[in-house]
Design a protein that fits this description.
By secondary structure, this protein is an alpha/beta fold. The protein has a domain of 172 residues: Lactate dehydrogenase/glycoside hydrolase, family 4, C-terminal (L-2-Hydroxyisocaproate Dehydrogenase, Chain A, domain 2). It has 13 helices and 17 strands. The strands form 4 sheets. It has a 10-stranded mixed beta sheet. Helix 3 packs across helix 11, helix 6 runs parallel beside helix 7 and helix 8 packs across helix 10. The relative contact order is 0.10. Bound molecules: NADPH dihydro-nicotinamide-adenine-dinucleotide phosphate and oxaloacetate ion (OAA). Oxaloacetate ion binds next to loops. One of its GO terms (cellular component) is chloroplast. GO terms for molecular function: L-malate dehydrogenase (NADP+) activity. Its EC number is 1.1.1.82.
Length: 443
């Protein structure tokens, strides 16, 4: 499509993208005026002005080659073909589409994102009638890789993918985001204390919380994946006081999926027969996969798998340490299955939960019915009516084993919270983490 066609009035069905263009185009005064008007919508008072782009309505006939941003550090740039402006009113197929949804993804050049972004763009997450905008956050270190990712998205020709922007400033990338999938985080290196990891990654999530607070949709839903994800989510929400704390999630869906798989394997059933699985607590080796309330074919697991010792020991430990075993085999942490579990986590919030079932998510404790400490991010059983919100499930039972395990993971999260007090605005940090505290991938 020629860009001359593209300068239709902006309507709910037309989309504008910006990119740097050759100087002969941007020097045209009418062009400069046009883009001055448009690009103002991307700007934020904390940032220097955007360096983007210019196209004159009647002067551009052929596609324009992208030019590298000269100041990538402070701008969100639309990418390549996604900078083209056109009018969707002309397109019959799109008449029944919903209005655009804007999804921001951090760590967008990383392994998990490399699987996730293509699922988002394909429609399998939000639906085949949901056009999508992807705002991808990287860093100076990953900028080229981010461009590579955007190129692959271009070449995939996804009909639903209407805009892609890349950048390294969260204030640009999170602008108006309705979903923020926070994946980027520093992996724990050899010899690094967990307290050190909490501090380094905590700084990232404190900054990103502030950025979400400043520029994201007031109803943004945030899923924190980067580890240690529960405490990172806590830091993030504490730095975003204008966004409801209930909108923040730490990803424990991968753990739930792992638990379902192990129960199915033991019972000799297909894994879709396993339901009502809760992961309680931290995404770490203290997490508690709950076999007491879980069901297989609608029957309590304990009646199907009568080997209590297996459930308490082997099953529990297998789920807790699955990530580490996989790293030993694969040489890196779960990426594809993590991306699948992020998809599951989103779909659980945007589609009604099946009758009687529930899903696990790390959510902010604020009046929970289980007696778990308040003011931490703790994985619990949730149910949604599909509007993006959730309620905690009340009809769960506890026994001594489950209570004792829950207390252990709760103590770990309270200790993590003390370690990051300087990042949550709660005074001086004091770090006395239990020695066996580990991410699933660390053993
Ligand atoms: N909750 C869960 O169930 C799971 C969580 N995880 C966690 O997800 C996160 C991402 O995993 P994955 O995509 O495989 O990792 P990758 O290493 O492939 O990508 C991580 C990205 O994080 C970014 N990053 C941000 N800050 C730093 C930093 N200081 N040093 C290095 N990289 C940084 C990097 O991007 P850039 O340079 O653009 O910032 C990098 O591309 C990890 O924290 C991992 O532990 C993994 C599996 C399961
Ligand atoms: O420890 C890691 O980075 C990987 C991880 O969270 C997991 O596999 O569950």
């Amino acid at each position: 499509m020629s860009l001359a066609m593209a300068m239709a009035e902006v309507s709910p069905y037309s989309y504008t993208r910006f990119q740097n263009l050759p100087s002969n185009l941007s020097s045209n005064p009418s062009t400069a005026h046009f883009f001055q008007k448009r690009r103002s919508s991307f700007q934020h008072p904390h940032r220097p002005p955007s360096i983007c782009c210019s196209v004159a309505p009647s002067q551009v006939e052929s596609p324009v080659a992208p030019v590298l941003p000269t100041d990538a550090a402070s701008n969100r740039e639309c990418y390549g073909v996604f900078c083209t402006t056109y009018d969707l009113k002309a397109d019959d197929k799109t008449r029944s589409w919903k209005s655009l949804i804007r999804v921001a993804v951090s760590g967008a050049a990383g392994m998990i994102s490399n699987h996730l972004l293509f699922k988002l763009a394909s429609g399998e997450v939000f639906g085949s009638d949901q056009p999508i905008v992807l705002n991808l956050l990287g860093s100076e270190r990953s900028y080229q890789a981010l461009e590579g990712v955007a190129m692959e998205l271009e070449d995939s020709l996804y009909p639903l993918l209407r805009e892609v922007s890349i950048g390294i400033n969260p204030y640009d990338i999170f602008q108006d985001a309705e979903w923020a999938l926070l994946i980027g985080a520093k992996p724990r290196g050899p010899g690094m204390e967990r307290a050190g990891l909490l501090d380094i990654n905590g700084q990232i999530f404190a900054e990103q919380g502030k950025a979400l607070n400043a520029v994201a949709s007031r109803d943004v839903k945030v899923i924190v994946v980067g580890n240690p994800c529960n405490t990172n989510a806590l830091i993030c929400l504490k730095n975003a006081p204008n966004i409801p704390a209930k909108n923040f999630h730490a990803l424990t869906r991968l753990d739930e999926n792992r638990a379902k798989c192990q129960l199915a394997l033991k019972a000799g059933v297909f894994y879709d027969k396993v339901s009502n699985v809760t992961i309680w607590g931290n995404h770490s080796t203290t997490q508690v996969p709950d076999f007491l309330n879980a069901k297989i074919n609608g029957i309590p697991v304990k009646e199907v798998i009568t080997d209590r010792k297996w459930l308490e020991q082997e099953f529990t430990e297998r789920v807790q340490k699955r990530g580490g075993v996989l790293i030993k085999k694969w040489g890196r942490s779960s990426a594809a299955s993590t991306a699948v579990s992020i998809v599951d986590a989103i779909r659980s919030l945007v589609t009604p939960t099946a009758n009687g079932d529930w899903f696990s998510s790390g959510v902010y404790t604020n009046g929970n019915p289980y007696g778990i400490a308040e003011d931490i991010v703790f994985s619990m059983p949730c149910r949604s009516n599909g509007d993006g919100d959730y309620e905690l499930v009340k009809e769960v039972v506890f026994d001594d084993f489950l209570r004792e395990r829950i207390e252990k993971t709760e103590a770990e999260l309270i200790a993590e919270k003390r370690c990051v007090a300087h990042l949550t605005g709660e005074g001086n940090a004091y770090c006395d983490l239990p020695e066996d505290t580990m991410l699933p991938g660390e053993q």
